[in-house]
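Sample pair:
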Amino acid sequence: MAFRRQDIPKTTRKGEDGKPRRLYPRFAKDRSLLPKIDLAVEYLDGMVGRRRGDLSPDVVLELFGDPKLARCVLACLGDSYRYRTPDIAEIVGEEAALALAAWDLLTPIDVRGHVYRAANAELGGFVPDTDRSAFLLRVAAPLGLAPHHLEELLHLDAERNAVLIRVGPRPKAEDVLARYNAMLAVSVLRHASEVILELPELDSSTIETVCARHEVGWRRVGTETIRLAGRRNALGSWAQFGVRVARCATHLIALAPRSPSGCAVVHLNDQHLTFVLDATAVNALRPKRRAAATADGVVRCAVLMDEVAALRRKAGGGTNGWTMRRALDPVVVAGALVLPELVFTRDQIAVAVVPVAAGTAPDASSALAALNLALAARPVIALGVPPTATAVPALAATDAAALIALLDEVAGGQLASPTPLGLVEDEVLSIGWVGTERMAEVLGEADRARLPGRVEPLTLDGDAAYVSGFGLCRVALLDELLDRLITGPLDVATLRATVAARVGDGPGADALTLHLLSQHAVVARIRPDTEPVEGDRAA
């Protein structure tokens, strides 16, 4: 995503001889930002699974010292870290969610509508605070829900409850830095009224096809120099159409056989500024390895779009849930830039489709090298390449059905970001227990009294149990400790030491020990042959 106009880090200087002021975007020209980016990634990675209300936006802002720079870096991380609304099943469990579906309550909006109708019918549309608990209890009972679950579902889709997830692998600081520089140049060009480009050795047919693809007007102003024209909207802003101008300029710069140059007239804060496309700006958009559609690739993608649209109409949604759109932003990693033509999305997965020139031309090998580097950061598909010719998922021909099958295959190989409840479940399965403090941290729950309800979906199948004061524990572990207690004479000190050795010393070990002792008393009453406790022996 491009940077907001007010967030673009820049400096301006007075032009010479009455010329417009010159704009100097603040590119990151060295590696001094890498440690700070690493810390920002570390913070976001540690907050995965937490709700939006638990995150502090000031942490990253204070880390970089410059609010504009910090917001731009966060925008560059937006492809990897996103927010999503939790599913109802994550709160109440699969069985309860299916029961709600029988009531046609599939989303928080449906739940709110159901509760509002009940409020209108029973209390004239207004529920006083004194009647709230009793009202929620009456509404929740027929639905098979606990009142606190119903209340949580009412605002589950609130912005503060959105859960942070990570899509794909953990981003590398070098890739984020490269993306920052590229998107900074693109963001400035989005406010251009005109862009002058000198494109050595780039043929006219390619220029014409690329400009037609982006619907940007152009004309020659020199032997190898062209002018791209922007367009104002009804409010006098250049930014809306500037998206096309920036993409078109980036496309042409990436395709130029030799290093291009140029300048742009941009409009920021009611100022006319000159942005010179010097070596720093050009290198950000034109690394050594790059992949962008040639004229033939643009045509092939246009044909593929028509085939996918026809498949959707013919099969009545035969695209398996994939939605298609024209790509806008480049995929940038350290040392490579990929300019997709199409992007297919489903759920949280976005797959970029990039046409590659046929044959063994230098631009084809460079494109495959760029795609290989980009593949480590996000899923991409090479169009026009035999699958055996590259490690990148590839499609040799423009076949819509084959593309959908390949998209399904690519999506199946993507790692899904765990939910907060999923993180707790994973830790219980791998360790055997999760303490109260850890659960509160992962679930973002400040009220410890609400924890049993939050983890109820994990205890419904009987594989885990909530122990007050201790946390969530696998039943197999509880049975193992209880068996040791039952088969021998009762020694509370030894039991406490055994528990502490297994789950760590502290108040949690005391709570688990008391729970085991209470269970021992129950078993002793059920099984008379159980070894008597010390008090009974003394009596």
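The radius of gyration is 30 Å.
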